[in-house]
Amino acid sequence: QVQLVESGGGLVQPRDSLTLSCTTSGCSISNKAMGWFRQTPGKERELVIAISWSGGTTYSAHSALGRFTISRDNAKNTVYLKMNSLKPEDTAVYYCAASRPGESWAGKGVSIFNSFGQGTQVTVSS
Question: Which of 25, 28, 74, 76 is most buried, most CB within 10 Å of its CB?
Fold first, then answer.
């Protein structure tokens, strides 16, 4: 079972940029799709952005299009979320997630993600 630890969250101002990191251990992530979810109080956790195990395919929620970028370094077992032009509505706890080995979200959606980190708080406020 993979363990996931997020870092890099904090308090930023609107229009700032922030990069989150997800450090993994326990097993290789090279055959796992990886994603970033976020959750605000009273709402369900939602998938923001994801990257395939090969890195060749990404998915972005409408809210993330053009502003968020996901990348992975399989050699370092680390996944990154670069967030630009942050807005107050991006305030949330951000969770890193890993899929089952070899899974693709095509036709299956978020159900492929079965491992989550503890989350890191991102607050966007002036």
Answer: 74
Residue with tokens 């952005």: 49
Helix (DSSP H) and strand (DSSP E) numbers for the chain: 0, 11
Give me the residues paired with residue 95 across strands. 37
Condensed to tens digits (0 to 9), the pLDDT of residues 50-102 reads: 999 888 889 999 999 999 999 999 999 999 999 999 999 999 999 999 999 98
- Nearest by Cα to 119 from 14, 40, 29: 40
Give residue 69's Cα distance to chain centre.
9
The two tokens of residue 24 are: 């993994």
pLDDT tens-digit profile of 2-15?
999 999 999 999 99
